[in-house]
Recover the amino acids of this structure.
């Protein structure tokens, strides 16, 4: 008898939870009967559904339930979460529950406990000693850790569509067309940023070197100086070309002012790295007068922390670059939990990395001229990201302007 | 003896005429010997080369010479152009010379005559009666027309690289990267536009509906009103959505102000067309108060001519749309010969059509967020076009701003 | 009292009709109460909903109802359709109903009548004399025609998701990722094609010149020869380069066999057109031995009709090209109503044109290496199209192979 | 007197060395006079030029000479290379010579010495003790290292165009159009691969996870099994999805066989990583029977080394992934020097990383459906790469087929 009753509640029709649930069951070859259904008649009412899910085999049923739990369906007869100890470092027990990036609760010792530091594709670990329920990446599991297995006693709450006109961050599906009016979108982002800052919230930027190549570095530098940005996450390239543009006036050998293209003028970025190596660090370079303007300069001057996560394509790299990818992830992970908004600008690698770490509640915007960056982010599960296909060289000046309009 | 001596002159090394000539001969399986070579030692000096081209067969030699003539190579022993009469309407004699879009001269009755209305992929027709040497598309040939065949007595002059820093319109190769500083490029275009207008020159715009979708219609309307644009070439879609945005405030059913997306709000453009049909024409609609602002409105009010060239994807179409493609081409062809600059914005079909018609001396800019539009334009031979990959929704506001900076 | 009761029925939750209805009302600033709701408890059961829609003004209510009718919502208190006579050729009465591409019925003289030749963005015209209810494009309206206005008595039936695993043509949303396994998709298309042909169905191809440029022309030619294709819709370019490749072995001057690129070898296509002009038509060229193989050759030899719809970017064009865009649309429209499947291959212009004309029941596949072609098709309302982002140069050989596998 | 005489020799016109030299001088605001010019009259002859380069300042002259040296221009009055000792680890002396990826020689102690392990954007270090002249990345410099500064005594030899039809790997400019015949290109690559293997050469693959997503993993696995591939360079994603597809039959939760898409089926790759963590390594997993087929399996079984270079977007990662980016680069660098051909398939990060490390003599092919990957590779200086824009899901099957044709 491969059947199980599940429950759904909330704006489950218009937020697509119910249709997606039915879709998923059918696509996975399962079947369902609606046992009870109570539709919210008015705007403020919520709907409730009870469904009997059936499948051909216990395995199939488990797979279906596993995926349903990510959509927000909870198993009806509520039991406590099931825990199994890890037998080896970095190894979760078979059947471990793999998290989504939505707010998640587990029923543990008769209490619905919030899973802290929620992040997609992790395990849920319960530390009984410290009375802590939290997300844990596979790589951080230690032998003996108590890991949630199965799908009993788990409740996921995906974001719901508000009843009323959709807001910018409710699109829920990355929308990558370039044929939409952009100015209004930018004004909405600017107003959201101002509101977050007025409430003491935190905004991060994840940026690629095209910010500098396109001549928009100065706008990002100003945003940092003016306190809009609380953390910068980037790679060696953004920092190097930013420094190159301060020292040599070029980016990848292209003159930032005149835009004149020099066929193989590729040595400036190497000379820039060499100068920072000589100073010992970006901070030292600011202090000893080597570096006098730009994005990194403003980070140092205004105590805005930065994480320069290394990659295998780095030249140099700069002494401040973190060459261990796990270490970089850890630092980005800490930031991710603490942010209210992230602007991901012109970097596929760092955007996807950040997208993997972000809880779905963080307002996220991905800006790139290449539609495939946005598509990939969404294909990899970061459905909450608002994608904008536009030119970085004009997006940042216009955002800056919108932030300074009365 | 499949050999022939050719001559080249000008800045043939740095303008790549000589390297391309050698390249082409080798790629086509021919061979060459340099007979004479006189290199320009100083900036102002020009270079001269005489080469003996050889091939395995007369046919191969002819094909090579045919292509060389487009690069600017002229056959040494100068003979008069050879003429053959067409035997049937729309049919050129075998071996007809197919034009490039560069300035071309033919040696006829002992004079080097300029070929008028030069345009790529046409024939050269000599009208002895009216003493006229001009380009003629295949479709316009009449039985009895005297058409140039072979490649004797033809001299092509491709644009040359100036000795000194390259100017915007000397790039000669469409450059489609989106990682270049854009603001400076826009300033150069603006300053070129102002210079052309100050000299009484003519500027055309070839535009697609994304101009309206992205909310930039008002900037184009202002440019028309302010006298920057002398002719508008577009299709049914640009005009329809421009009119829709005046009447309904939407474009393809999307609110231009708020950018709110309405899933299937596709009826507005039909209602807009219906209203213009009722008025009888766009001009009538302006006069009877149906249409009160926008791109088409400004064209009517300021007597800026427009060509709305129809296509098979048109809804409606508007009464002003020319549904015969040959007729549209003829009208565009007349404009093409008379322009100093063309801005091609966000339309692949109309840009390629215009690109086919433009002499290489017309300064041409193609702006699209999709790199493949620019690539296709260049693949089809419009090598003089400066390609810019950017967002239309920001390009036009920034261009407008640049045109109004002191 | 701007309120109206609407009804929905079918698999309205999993086919997204109900969620989209709620979404649309809220986005348009309206409100709703659920009056009755009867959910289909089992797979085979259908669901029914009755909702009270309210809005701030009668206009707003009308706009909402107008869009809802396209989703399949019908107004509860069933009245007959309302008709108004056109006062002028090409002009529909204000408030005309604009069609979707889904099966549509109108209540007329107490009967639910099917709207014939359904096509998006048209009017519904009732010809009382001939007892005919059919779709009519704006441009074909004659003064005196009885046109449906308002939204009473209209029932739209969008395709429903089958209960069970989704089939290829149920995706309903163009899916443009290039990171999906392609071979299986091709096998499904091949098997669908074989089934259609076994039932005497009709398959059309809408194709661009890249079919020839990529060396895949011979596969399309074989499909035509073998009876898989019932009609070819293309432009001057496909036919010209197909003919060029037969006569000269090149396409746009590139050798089809060796792929060697010749920088400016652009005269062959002009010479090809000239030869057909000499013969007088493609048919004549086949008969007089000018044309001996290829796509157009097989069309002539196998009596497969072709529509060569002209565009402003055509060189020549060939004598068989229809230079009037309205005439081209009419011919394509006739084909559209009569097809069971359409393959749209590597042509944005012709694909969007065809997409506009197709009823949603026709199985449609759009194949292009450029994701934006597929995105645009879908943005313009052809939601039923399955989009495949892949290389034409490999798609057609693989489809051919799949059609010949046992 | 900011003047200096330079010399060029070889097929300097048709290989574009001379035009590029003139271009660069003019674009950088310098000037030149041709002092001597001796053109190769016949195919086998080489040309020689002596030019006097002048500039406004010594600095400008130095910049120009620096860049000219990368094009193959050598300074006339031959002096020995100038060496300066590094004063600090990772810091090169000011004015250090930054390498290109072309074969480079330095005049040292009266001998023209080949610079070993040539790689772009490095310094040249002379180890007098061990009599070794080699490339050194900035990060590996030790205090006291003798580093080449200035541009005396350096000779660079860029690849030359052969006189005759251009070969595949002579394109020299990445060519990213998707409208070229592909089958022939694939046949050329296959024949090149067979020739390299017949001579005992080495072929590397740099691959992204799309190889597995598109269902082409089995073809790469077969190529490894059959001995065509000597080293695999990839990241965590390719290995994880390859292992996922062996264990679960899916890739990113999509069924490889049926192509059915599962909306949020993202847990399989985590479970796959967990299983390998349990085994301890990929090798162990093959030995203990956890892993039984696929790309990684064949690498283990056939002793083909693999480098899994970590990145910040990695889930897990697998125990075999190198999480230190500098260490990954070192391992890739060793391979780069030892290869005859590299296929870079569907990975921007790893392709650009590899492109940075490759000497220009290595035959390199970059295959991606996204044109921007190829464009970026070329923008960053890897001009020798042949770019192919096509679908991975069809490229690998077709390459496999071509390798097995008689």
């Amino acid at each position: 008898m491969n059947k199980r009753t599940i429950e759904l509640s909330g704006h489950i029709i218009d937020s697509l939870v119910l249709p997606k649930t039915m879709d998923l069951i059918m696509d996975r070859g399962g079947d369902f009967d609606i046992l009870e259904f109570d539709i919210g008649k008015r705007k403020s009412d919520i709907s409730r559904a009870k469904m009997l899910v059936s499948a051909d085999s216990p395995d199939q049923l488990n797979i279906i339930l596993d995926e349903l739990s990510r959509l927000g369906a909870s198993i009806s007869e509520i039991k406590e979460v099931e825990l199994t100890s890890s037998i080896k470092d970095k190894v979760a027990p078979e059947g471990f529950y793999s998290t989504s990036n939505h707010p998640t609760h587990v029923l543990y010792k008769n209490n619905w406990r919030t899973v802290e530091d929620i992040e997609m594709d992790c395990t849920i670990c319960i530390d009984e000693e410290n009375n802590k329920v939290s997300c844990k990446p596979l790589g951080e599991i230690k032998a003996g850790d108590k890991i949630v297995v199965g799908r009993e006693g788990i409740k996921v709450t995906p974001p719901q569509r508000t009843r009323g006109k959709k807001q910018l961050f409710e699109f829920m599906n990355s929308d990558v067309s370039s044929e939409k009016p952009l100015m209004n979108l930018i004004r909405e982002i600017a107003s959201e940023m101002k509101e977050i800052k007025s409430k003491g919230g935190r905004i991060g930027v994840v940026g690629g070197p095209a910010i500098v190549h396109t001549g928009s570095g100065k706008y990002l530098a100003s945003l940092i100086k003016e306190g809009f940005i609380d953390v910068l996450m980037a790679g060696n390239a953004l920092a190097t070309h930013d420094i190159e543009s301060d020292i040599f006036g070029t980016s990848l050998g292209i003159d930032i002012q005149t835009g004149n293209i020099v066929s193989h003028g590729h040595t400036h970025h190497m000379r820039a790295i060499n100068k920072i190596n000589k100073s010992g660090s970006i901070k030292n370079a600011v202090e000893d007068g080597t570096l006098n303007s730009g994005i990194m300069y403003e980070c140092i001057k205004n105590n805005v922390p930065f994480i320069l996560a290394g990659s295998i394509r780095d030249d140099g790299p700069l002494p401040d670059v973190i060459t261990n990818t796990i270490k970089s992830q850890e630092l980005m992970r800490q930031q991710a939990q603490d942010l209210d908004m992230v602007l991901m600008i012109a970097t596929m690698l760092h955007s996807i990395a950040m997208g993997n770490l972000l809880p779905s509640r963080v307002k996220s915007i991905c800006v790139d001229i290449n539609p495939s960056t946005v598509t990939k982010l969404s294909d990899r599960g970061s459905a909450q990201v608002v994608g904008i296909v536009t030119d970085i060289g004009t997006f940042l000046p216009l955002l800056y302007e919108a932030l300074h309009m009365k």
Summary: Residues 78 and 347 of chain D are 43 Å apart (CA to CA). Chain D has three domains: 1-77, 79-161, 168-403. The interface with chain C takes residues 165-166, 175, 178-185, 210, 213-215, 251-252, 254, 256-261, 369-370, 389-395, 397-398 of chain D (CB under 8 Å). Residues 1-77 of chain D form a domain with the Alpha-Beta Plaits fold (CATH 3.30.70.2690).
